[in-house]
Amino acid sequence: MALDAALDLIRRLPPSKLENNLADLVDLAPEVQEDLLSAVDQPLQLQRDASGREFLTCDYNRDGDSYRSPWTNEFVPPLRDGVVPSARLRAIEELANSAFDAYRAQYYDSGVSSTYLWDLEHDANFAACVLFRKDAMGISRDARGEGRWDALHVFEVKGGSKGSAVYKLTSTIMLSILTPDAGKMHVAGMITRQSEREEVAGSARQHVINMGKQLEELEIQMRHALVHVYFGKLAEVFSHLRNFESGSGEVKQQHGALQASLAAALSARGGPAE
């Protein structure tokens, strides 16, 4: 099947060239465009609404070629009869944007956040997408290099037992780092995790609190995984390729054994020629 083959290729191709790879695959198999673009998370893009405020764009706030701002609830470029959340969800969306923008300031210091909600089939159910993007320059010790962090958190919220709701969260983080160290190394990757829990939810404020706690816990876990597992493995690979501490540990023992072996071989042959 063309879609399965395209998704398999995306998993194997460099994450740093995701957008170009998607464009090429759509050219090759235009019949899978909609399914492919909806199945693959892409780096977040910036737009500016009529009030001058920046917001993030993705498939969840797109209608045609226009994107809805979470701050003004209007589309850019303007779109007549664009799909917007119900009044109940818009009230939750406004609270969530305020709360997650404060979260962004606390954890990211700078960057842009955007939160979008939309209705599901059942009246009491809804979905939400919380987005964060941060670009950084001068990330290495010599004030060069650059990095980018894109985080997409998608909630599916359904009614649970009496007075509660079930929150299913799927989170994806896309990280890209370009540094002049080690020969202009470019590291890029993507990590996805899920969590599900049931919480008491009787108001719009409680929904935002529940989503915030769950998102915070999962994002911290994912950051630790990136730092200790993925970058830890990268450091291990570098240590095997080039060891900068030539007199330490196992490497020192190996060097000593090699020197002794060479010395013994030279002695057996009567020593170096004069």
From TrEMBL:
Family assignment from sequence similarity: Belongs to the F-actin-capping protein beta subunit family.
This protein's GO CC annotations: cytoplasm; F-actin capping protein complex
Main location, first listed in the record: cytoplasm
UniProt xrefs under PROSITE patterns: F_ACTIN_CAPPING_BETA
TM region(s), chain numbering: none
GO terms for biological process, alphabetical: actin cytoskeleton organization; barbed-end actin filament capping; cell morphogenesis
Entry function: F-actin-capping proteins bind in a Ca(2+)-independent manner to the fast growing ends of actin filaments (barbed end) thereby blocking the exchange of subunits at these ends. Unlike other capping proteins (such as gelsolin and severin), these proteins do not sever actin filaments.
Subunit record text: Heterodimer of an alpha and a beta subunit.
Name listed for the protein in its UniProt record: F-actin-capping protein subunit beta
PANTHER family in UniProt: F-ACTIN-CAPPING PROTEIN SUBUNIT BETA, F-ACTIN-CAPPING PROTEIN SUBUNIT BETA ISOFORMS 1 AND 2
InterPro entries, per the entry: CapZ_alpha/beta, CapZ_alpha/beta_2, CAPZB, CAPZB_N, F-actin_capping_bsu_CS
Keyword annotations from UniProtKB, A to Z: Actin capping, Actin-binding, Cytoplasm, Cytoskeleton
GO molecular function, one term: actin filament binding
SUPFAM superfamilies, alphabetized: Subunits of heterodimeric actin filament capping protein Capz
Cell compartments where the protein resides: Cytoplasm, Cytoskeleton
